Amino acid sequence: MPTAEAMREFEAFLATIHYPPSPYRNLDNSLPTSVVTLEHLAPGLFTLPEGAKLPAGDATNGLADYSKQGLDGAFACVNCHTLPTGKGGDMRWNGATYEEVPLGPLGEAHSFLNSGDGQSNVTLTVPQLRNLDDKAGFHLTQLESNAGFGYVHDGSVDSLTRFLTEDAFNFQSDQQLADMVALMLAFPGSELPGSGGTTLLDPPGPESKDTHAGVGRQVTFATVLGAAPPADVQRILDFMAEADTGRVGLVGKGVFNGAPYGVQYLGAQQWALDVAPVVLSSAQLVTVIGPGNECTFTLVPAGTERRIGIDRDGDGCLDGDERNGGTDPADPTDCTCSDPLPAAPTGLTATPRGLYEIELAWTDAAVDETGYAIERRSGGGPFATVATLGPDATIHRDGGLRPGVTYDYRVSALGCAGPGVAAVTRSTNPATGLPVMFVGLLQLTKECDAANSKVRVIADVFVSTPSGVPLTVDGAVVEGSFSGAVTKTKMFGQTSHVGGNVYRVGFLSPWADLSVTPNPTFTFTVDDVTRMGWTYDPSLDVGNPISTSFTCP
């Protein structure tokens, strides 16, 4: 059974996964205006007969219909399937605006539910719409269907066109239907308009983690530029133009006189070679391309171009320099570079994003960093590393935080020679508006063995509220050290009412041998107190932590 911490780590990993790029969007990630929907057939309700090919669809017209009231009964698609993902939001209407639904006690989010099915399910989570193209190819009107597996939660609707012509929708023509199908196919890719969140039918949706549609597109030159097909020349020009926007990176991999090389596009027609400090112009680079000296150019996710293009293992030593020096470009521990410590990031900021997350942003001032280390602390304790990012990173979202708590952050660039000087900032997460509880008292009681040669303590945590309302807590996370033995225990349901508004959670320390350590000191700390619907404010704690020495009798 995974621990709560393991599940939080798994959730953090899942949050790093991005949807693949859309094969339907344009190179610049814009919506297509002409999508030939070969696998989506006419339903036979309008001009075209059932099973006929739909006309080419315009996704921009589909987006306008998607946000138009009246297409889905009295509503618009966007009222539930929020942009930019199509998923229901994690917000609720308070009568004037939308506000976040607080995370649950285990950090779980609460997305919008729909009870409109009314048949096989009572309630359904509003699904995201970024993988609909994967399901295409299943048609009950055809003699053969060798792809696809249907739509709706149980796959009971065979095709997009059949789903969109259910009684709930009000499409008026085959062309309008084709436009909506085109939008559904091009949904992944992000950069769709968001919501204002100021009216009941305009709910905000979660942020998208879709990949830019240009990522992965390639062009290979195997001849001198003058003999290259004009379409290939235009393609690399389009690649550079899109990379100049900063939304994607661009790299090249080639062979020159039998030796491999890599380049990273720096912008403004400049390319960094994988041998420092060589920078080539586009005009210089094309002179090395020809028969036998091929080069393939690839658009890559923004921020990955250095590692993919010229520093494979991210150790700060460029691939060409490593090959020339006899070290392994794929092994970050096999490095001979003598670079100085990388420069510290500049302009570090920490901005709350909702109640449980802080966004860090900085300017990448290092030249050959291997990555970035993110450290965090609260309450003046020691810093602990919470994330390690790749080179050229300039942003990080730190989640799972406690509302109302102030956190200090350090961000350091990492290099072959070690971490550089850290940039430091701090931020306080906004309060939840939930009722507050805190540790009102810590009480330690000793227990001696029969021979009075050993001692241990029972530590009671008394949980209080400012209002004096009696409160039963769900559990506590406590930590203690006694004669060098450290234990950390998470306990649930082991609470007892002491009186008034005070409750306790018991904790029993290990035994300490008095013949080895006379008068040992026990240090006890409460790390957390949990109760659904309440927030723990450690700034109100009384006597936390506590240290007391004991002996027997």
Can you lay out the helices and strands and say which pair or pack?
Blueprint: H1 4-14, H2 59-66, E1 91-93, E2 98-100, E3 113-114, E4 124-125, H3 160-164, H4 174-185, E5 218-221, H5 230-244, E6 248-256, E7 259-267, E8 270-273, E9 279-281, H6 282-286, E10 295-301, H7 305-309, H8 319-325, E11 346-352, E12 358-363, E13 371-378, E14 384-389, E15 395-398, E16 406-415, E17 418-419, E18 423-428, E19 436-448, E20 454-464, E21 475-482, E22 485-492, E23 495-499, E24 502-508, E25 512-513, E26 521-530, E27 535-536, E28 546-549
Parallel strand pairs: 19-27
Antiparallel strand pairs: 1-2, 3-4, 5-10, 6-7, 6-10, 7-8, 8-9, 11-12, 12-15, 13-14, 13-16, 16-17, 16-18, 19-20, 20-24, 20-25, 21-22, 21-26, 23-24, 26-28
Helix pairs in contact: 2-4
Brief digest:
The chain has 553 residues and is of the alpha+beta class.
List keywords for this structure.
12% helix, 6-stranded antiparallel β-sheet, 8 helices
